[in-house]
Design a protein that fits this description.
Elements (H helix, E strand, L loop, with lengths): L2 H117 L7
């Protein structure tokens, strides 16, 4: 192959490649707008669904967090009331124990007096 035929071959293949490239480019350009138009409503729908989902989750978690805060406050108040009740009951039980101990000592002293009186020698009666 001579230099002249090689140049002629290259010159002939360039326009063929250019025409193929041009045809491919035009097909691609025709397809891209159709694909974009087909994807745009779908993409918008997906974005809308995602936004609704985010909004829904935000509302639910906000309500849940508020409810948990209220429950924690109620629980804290109930525990404080229970603590005060248990403290007062403990004090009441201690007072009753002291009263029963005093009653027990009084009863033992009375029994001792009765026993001493019963076992004492009679004053001439027998």
């Amino acid at each position: 192959m001579s230099a002249r035929t090689a140049v002629a071959t290259v010159e002939k293949s360039v326009p063929v490649e250019s025409s193929i490239e041009a045809a491919l480019n035009s097909l691609i350009q025709e397809q891209i707008p159709e694909q974009l138009e087909a994807q745009t409503p779908r993409r918008i729908q997906i974005e809308d669904d995602a936004e609704r989902s985010r909004s829904f989750v935000a509302r639910i978690t906000s309500n849940s967090i508020d409810e948990i805060g209220e429950l924690a406050s109620d629980l804290s108040s109930a525990l404080q009331n229970l603590r005060e009740f248990l403290k007062s009951e403990g004090e009441r039980v201690q007072r009753e124990i002291v009263d029963y101990a005093h009653l027990n000592r009084t009863a033992v002293a009375a029994i001792k007096t009765i026993i001493e009186t019963a076992s004492a020698p009679s004053n001439g009666k027998s």
